[in-house]
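Incident log, support desk, overnight shift.

02:14 A customer reports that sequence design results differ from what the structure should imply. Their input is reproduced verbatim below. On-call engineer (initials T.W.) acknowledged and began investigating.
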């Protein structure tokens, strides 16, 4: 079962559980979906994340999300399948 985060994208039950468990807000996921840069991930998936400059700009526009936009979203066929905090350790594993 999936629910809409924003028009055109759905979230899986797994993604919603990860968002809740990792204290990631839906509005932060929406911003990444709208403004994120696409990268290829393993298994034909798409990974979206905000670059540093854009993240800083969005944090100025949305002060309630300051420090909460360092996340990435993994998509498969127009569905959000997981959401994670974007740490240096994880970035090394993906590339």
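02:41 Re-run completed on a clean worker. Output:
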């Amino acid at each position: 079962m999936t629910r809409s985060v924003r028009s055109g994208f759905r979230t899986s039950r797994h993604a919603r559980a990860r968002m809740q468990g990792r204290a990631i807000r839906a509005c932060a996921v929406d911003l990444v979906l709208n403004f994120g840069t696409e990268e290829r991930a393993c298994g034909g998936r798409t990974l979206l994340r905000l670059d540093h400059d854009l993240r800083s700009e969005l944090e100025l526009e949305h002060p309630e999300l300051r420090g909460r936009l360092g996340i990435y979203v993994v998509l498969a066929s127009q569905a959000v399948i997981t959401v994670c905090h974007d740490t240096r350790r994880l970035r090394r594993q993906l590339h």
